[in-house]
Amino acid sequence: MLVVNRFHAPEDPDAVPAFRADLEGVHALLAGMPGYVDGWLARNLDEPGLWLLSTRWQNVGAYRRALSSYDVKLHGVPVLSRAIDEPSAYEVVEPNAVLNIAEPRVT
């Protein structure tokens, strides 16, 4: 399971180091959670103000439990909430893999 969060960096160049430190801190928090596989920060080559935090998880449950942890809620969610508002969780498609059924959620 792959999670892709994209962010717009602050326009003020002096604010970018703190922004980067915030993303690195969230990544470190997530990396300490059970079910975390790997992840990285990246910056877009063509638009340097566009940043990415990508993480890979054993399964969607591990990712959701990580988001529910006290430390991530306290320190990570405020940073993650600044991500571009778009779907971020992806199912990795491998040859001959059975995919989740695409159907609306019932609430």
From TrEMBL:
Species of provenance: Nocardioides vastitatis
Record EC number = 1.14.-.-
GO function terms (MF aspect): monooxygenase activity
Residues in a coiled coil are none
Recite the UniProt keywords alphabetically.
Answer: Monooxygenase, Oxidoreductase
For this protein, the record's Pfam families field holds: ABM
* InterPro entries referenced in this protein's UniProt entry, alphabetically: ABM_dom, Dimeric_a/b-barrel
The source's domain of life comes to Bacteria
What protein is this chain from? Antibiotic biosynthesis monooxygenase family protein
Q: What is the lineage of its organism?
A: Bacteria, Bacillati, Actinomycetota, Actinomycetes, Propionibacteriales
Which EC class is this protein assigned? oxidoreductase
Which residue intervals define the domain ABM in the entry? 3-71
